[in-house]
Amino acid sequence: MKKEFGGAEHFIEDSRMEMANALAKMVGIKAISPISGGAGEGKRADFLQRMLQGWGFAVKRYTYIDETGTERPNLVTVLGNNKRTLWIITHTDTVSEGDRSAWKTDPFKGVIKNGKVFGRGTNDNGQEVIASIFALRALKESGSGMKRNLGVVLAADEELGSEYGMGALVRKGIFGKRDMFIVPDSGNAKGDEIEISEKSTLWLRVTVLGKQVHASTPQDGVNAYRYAIRFLNEIDEYMHKKYKKRDKLFITPSTFEMTKHEKNLDSTNIIPGKEVSYIDCRILPRYRVDSVLNDMRRIAKAKRFGKARIIVDVFEREDATRPTSEKSEIVRMLKRALKKQRGIRAKCVGIGGGTVAKPLRKLGMQVAVWSTQHDIAHQPNEYAEIDHMVADAKTFAFLCTG
Ligand SMILES: [Zn+2]
Description:
By secondary structure, the protein is of the alpha/beta class.
């Protein structure tokens, strides 16, 4: 037995294969959102609840019914008798497999190979689901003295907005004002990036209305496609120029990306009267989302586009919150733990994606988004490295004892 390992860490090391097997089994139970045509997290939550109860934990199950009438379960388990709780928040839902032919193994059958577990949801967010519950179990089994409680939330509905997951739990008020949070749903393979800030998200639909006519008589119509191209081109240049400032936490400045484009017509010889395109904007916290939106709408009304009608509407918007401070207790604690336990010198970063840190930070909670993982969420042949899962479980346990 190596002396530097505490009892909990030792227990986790010994559980390595059990953890890999649990992850493989878990991803074999589909948990795709009913809104995307799946059956929800129910069966997977049952599996995890049984496992936790089998280890002697009392599990609270918070279930919310979504708009399809499906139950969306959230599991909450807390260990310890301290005043404050360190929460590890993960999610049990996954996206669909995407292009099935791009997978080398069955996406819904966990496969263990070369120190990795393959399958949809192994990386996002299964690896950390298993890491967090094994940290709980290790602390309990080893009887290690705890400086703070460990709370584990296995949340539903993260991939499509968290309305029936963390959003509902935050509204219910199950978290203490002085609690601390780790959201292991973003990170890098070195485990040295602690995310403390997220950009605003703004998804826009641009509808251009013209007049449909035969392609041989353009003088009688208004080509919506032409105006869509012109408008999107102008927006592309204007936005990148105006919102060009950088932030030292983020790799990129604000981004404005044209993404989806709706199908218009089947024929080559018709001038389209309607074009619908989408823009995904990720805006640095220093800028106001309203300012971006006002600019888009002002340009849409400009005289040069006068023949067509351009409508810009918002179908998803999440404004950035005040970042978690680099000097906050959770960030200092995590940095110290990584240094002491794993010899990692971690730095603070910002990301363009959104995590459940947002609703928590909105309430003024201190949240570190951190984990050790490859950046392969939502990709085919998704996998989790068993070493990463084991190392992160040890860090979660260490944070409550060390
Ligand atoms: Zn995720």
